[in-house]
Amino acid sequence: MTATSTAVGIAGAVRSGERSARSVVEEHLAVIAARDAELHACNHVMVDDALATADAVDAAVARGEDAGPLAGVPVVLKDNLCTRGVPTTCSSRILDGWRPPYTATVVERLLLAGGIPVAKANLDEFAMGSSTENSAFGPTRNPHDTSRVPGGSSGGSAAAVAAGYAPLALGSDTGGSIRQPAALCGVVGVKPTYGRVSRFGLVAFASSLDQIGPLATTVDDAALLLEAIWGPDAMDSTAIPSQPEALGGDTDIAGMRIGIVEELTDVEGIAPEVKAAVERAAAGLDAAGARVERVSVPSCAYGLSAYYLIAPAEASSNLARYDGVRYGLRVDAADVAEMNAKTRDAGFGAEVKRRIMLGTYALSAGYYDAYYGQAQKVRTLIIRDFAQAYERFDVLLSPTSPTEAFPLGAKTADPLAMYLSDVCTIPTNLAGHSAMSVPFGTGAEGLPVGVQVLAPAQGESVMFRVARAVEGIVA
User: Fold this and answer.
1) Helices vs strands, H then E, count in the chain
2) Residue ranges of domains in the chain, CATH in brackets
3) Distance between CA 311 and CA 460 in Å, rounded?
């Protein structure tokens, strides 16, 4: 990777006039055209819009204006982020033909910063999945080995960055959907603190868990994009009203306290080479002056079970709006009730139907307290146990994904095995904290492995400092 291929390098070259935004965009569109028939990372390529936006950036530079911190940088958008007038499908047939009448806050901020959206990325339908095999438009393939999955649900976004479609992408993370594909594709993926990034214009899956964040080729690139999109937003009542702390470029970790989470590192199913990567990263941080110890966060062991009650319950509520009446797919029938049923049957895929049924059951009379209520109690325990851990440690470490990228089709017949792909990432979503995946070498099959850096709510600045240090360690 050269300096001018990073987002930081491209933006600097465009702002100085060394490169034109149009040439940068044309170069990346050529990569998409050459590779996407094989990888299928994109649902829609925004050629005309991207070139027009690039020309506007070049015009601003020519006038002597500051074109923004992301000037001329191509960015891929996960296809659950609304973009006015551009097809937004969530990789679902039920949104067939829908073009939003508004644009997501993060996309507006991206444009204000000079970034250039070039494509809408494939995903697991409505962000429900861990492999991007649940898309109604077909699976995305891992650029490192096209027989393997890229992870999910932001698999298209992660694969796009890994394949050179763009140095940056936006994804959404409900239970690990940015970090897990980042690990499997060998890129950086960040889940900010819940409320740090506006969710206005993100098509909802589970509203108390969803958070938008960057995927990037480097930690500094991820910081550049996150600083462009985060902050208060009157359009999102859950957005944190205070301005975030700058992420800086510091890599000094001397004296920092770092804990290796036992429940996420020693859990059954973690591949030996993945665990070894975490230990090597910890040793490197220790050598850089940090104090590294093991720590127990006991209730993390129940995170997966709690998540697969809470998230489907919220999904069953959010997805009730897709009824064939107002927008998207409509299957005609003799009456409204039959039309609703036929539309939802034709429009939703198997995994979405499974989660709607799970969630509806968990919320039903007679079962609410036993399932959804209990899951929320576990969520409270996870928040409490993390708080105790952060009294002793500045950040925590764990694997991001239990394994390297697995073969396409290997887990599609076993939902539980697929769900276990998120065992290391889910607890952070339940707590509402920040976490990120940093590429750290390869595993037994030569495919990327990610190390996860976890931090408390609004702890992004210290998290990025440790992530830069991990990035600098020879894996």
Assistant:
1) 16, 11
2) 3-229 (3.90.1300.10)
3) 24
Rounded distance between C-alpha atoms, residue 59 and residue 457, angstroms? 40
Three-point CA angle 165, 223, 74, nearest 5°: 25
pLDDT computed for residue 3 by the predictor: 58
SS3 330: coil
Split at pLDDT 50, 70, 90, the class of 79 is very high
Beta-carbon contacts of 219 under 8 Å, excluding residues fewer than 6 positions away, are 188, 438, 464, 467, 468, 471
Largest CA distance in the chain: 71
Catalytically active residues are: 78, 153, 177
Three state DSSP letters for 392-424: HCCEEEEECCCCCCCECCCCCCCHHHHHHHHCC
Which residues, 6+ apart, have CB-to-CB distance to 392 below 8 Å?
A: 257, 259, 295
Nearest to 126 by CA among 342, 349, 343: 349
Taking a C-beta distance cutoff of 8 angstroms, is the pair 417, 129 a contact?
A: no
Per-residue pLDDT reduced to its tens digit, 319-339: 999 999 988 999 999 999 999
Count the alpha carbons within 13 Å of 253 in the hemisphere toward its beta carbon: 31
Helix axes 21-39, 7-16, angle to 10 degrees: 150
The structure tokens listed for 151 are 């992870």
The percentage of the chain sitting over the pLDDT mark of 70, rounded to a whole number, equals: 99
Residues 6 or more apart whose CB falls under 8 angstroms from that of 271 comprise 402, 403, 404, 443, 444
Q: Is the pLDDT of residue 291 over 90?
A: yes
Task: Say what the pTM is.
Answer: 0.97
Dig out the tokens for 470 from the structure. 């991990």
pLDDT band at 52, cuts 50/70/90? Answer: very high
Type of residue found at 130: S
Predicted confidence at residue 2, as pLDDT, reads 61
Residue 119: pLDDT band (50, 70, 90) is very high
Three-state SS letters, 18-56: CCCHHHHHHHHHHHHHHHHHHHCCEEEECHHHHHHHHHH
Average pLDDT of the chain is 96
